[in-house]
Amino acid sequence: MSYDVYGIGNAIVDLQVQVEDSFLEAIGVQKGIMTLVEADQQQQILGALTGKPVNRCSGGSACNTVVGVADFGGRGAYACKVGTDEFGSFYLGELRDLGISCEVPADGAQTGTSVILISNDAQRTMLTHLGASTGLSTDDVNRYEITKARYIYVEGYLFASPGTRAAALAAIDMAKEEGVKVALTVSDPFLISMCRDVFWELIRGPVDLLFCNREEAHALTGLEDPVACARLIHEHQANVCLTLGADGSLILHDGAVYPIEGVPVQAVDTTGAGDMYAAGVLYGITNGLTWKQAGHLGSHAAARVVSQLGARMGRKFTPAEIEKLLR
Question: 176 or 24, which is more confident?
């Protein structure tokens, strides 16, 4: 079986909970950012949430994107590391139910979790325990699986630690050796402060498509204007997708610039917006759409996911809907 996208990234069980700002103040976390926490801290947070409704799904940035590709009707595979606990069984079971191949063996560590606290203004505050995800290694990268893909999609969060960075770079090397295209998302501005030289080396070299948002583009280039950021990156990278939140996105492809409009929607939860935008673009360009059409699909996917709780689109786009959107 061939794949449109082979993703590689963290395996995180997302636990989404709606809270008041007073709850964030009470547990002493900064609103609107992702904070890495240890296992005992995560257990304390979960304990404080007892009695609140929790929405649970398999997550991690690249996982969300691969699931989105599958929701459009594409085929996907995912390389990640889960534990042998109940969360790990849930994670792998959900992926397989969605038709996504995951051939990496589990290990004995706790599966990673991310408590996503969603405030009334739709801002998300994430408390993430990476758990078993940090054990992903070069041994878990499957060359044969990569050869079956049109694109691999690499999550920038993997570059935060040496072992997972080595796995990401091994996947990129294998893809290039096998003639498979490489898409990279830089994932978060804080990673750029840690890995700027590595990211720029990849952008100038093996990467075929870069995804970033406004803040990440600013961190990469030092420029303020998003168009100027995109143009500077495009001098070194043939294909750039720069998301601008409610203002849409910019796609730069082989010298052409395509402004993509945002889709007006009442945002409930911004979790997964960029991930689902990438899913629309990747599904589009691996299934015969133009880059501009793929960008439109990405905008509609992002709008759908922010209008509900969680990083899944919920209601999938039917082939008829996709055809109507692209007219």
Answer: 176
One-letter-per-residue 3-state SS of 107-127 = ECCCCEEEEEEECCCCCEEEE
Pairing of strands 112-118, 209-213: unpaired
Question: How far apart are the C-alpha atoms of 284 and 262, rounded to whole Å?
Answer: 17
Cα separation, 183 vs 118, in Å, equals: 29
**Is residue 310 scored above 70 in pLDDT?**
no
How many whole angstroms separate alpha carbon 194 and alpha carbon 160? 8
Determine the Cα–Cα distance for residues 57 and 119; give it in Å rounded to an integer: 19
Q: Is the pLDDT of residue 100 over 80?
A: yes
Say what angle helices 189-204 and 214-221 make with each other, to 10 degrees.
70
Q: For residue 255, is it left (φ>0), alpha (ψ between -120 and 50) or beta?
A: left
Q: How many CA atoms lie within 13 A of 90 on its CB side?
A: 15
**Helix 61-71 vs helix 273-285: crossing angle, to nearest 10:** 50
Confidence of residue 322 (pLDDT cuts 50, 70, 90): confident
Four-CA torsion 15, 16, 21, 25, nearest 10 degrees: 10
Which of the listed CATH numbers 3.40.1370.10, 3.40.190.10, 3.40.50.410, 3.40.1190.20 matches domain 3-11+60-85+136-325?
3.40.1190.20
Write down the pLDDT at residue 123.
83
